[in-house]
Amino acid sequence: MDEPIIDEALRERLKSALWFSIGKIVDEEIIQLNVNATPQFIGALTEMVWAQLENISRDLESFARHAGRSTVNTDDVLLLARRNEGLGELLKAFVDEENAGKLADKGKGKGKGVAKK
């Protein structure tokens, strides 16, 4: 499988943004839990999350490719979550809610359902 070529500077910027976001989340949690977290912990957690994101992205790309598509869609994400029952149910409910909202918005088109005099 060919690995996409990503600019190393972009990769580092993305990892830095991830580190910053994880750091903020950890800071919020340590205040609530009244515990400490070292910078090494945040770094290790960031590396673990990065590795998971790489695995997830490869799986999603494989699912889309297997379905003959070049774009990942919600079906791929739901397939990825199939082994985590709670997550799968949450995602399915979210997708159903979004789809219901789109259907409702479709019926609100210009002049539809409005009687003109």
TrEMBL record:
GO biological process: DNA repair; replication fork processing; resolution of meiotic recombination intermediates
PANTHER family, A to Z: CENTROMERE PROTEIN S (PTHR22980:SF0), CORTISTATIN (PTHR22980)
Species per Swiss-Prot/TrEMBL record: Choiromyces venosus 120613-1
One Pfam family matching this protein: CENP-S
One GO term describing the cellular component: FANCM-MHF complex
InterPro entries: CENP-S/Mhf1, Histone-fold
Similarity comment: family membership: Belongs to the TAF9 family. CENP-S/MHF1 subfamily.
MF terms in GO: chromatin binding; DNA binding; protein heterodimerization activity
Entry protein name: Apoptosis-inducing TAF9-like domain 1 family protein
Record key words, sorted: DNA damage, DNA repair, DNA-binding
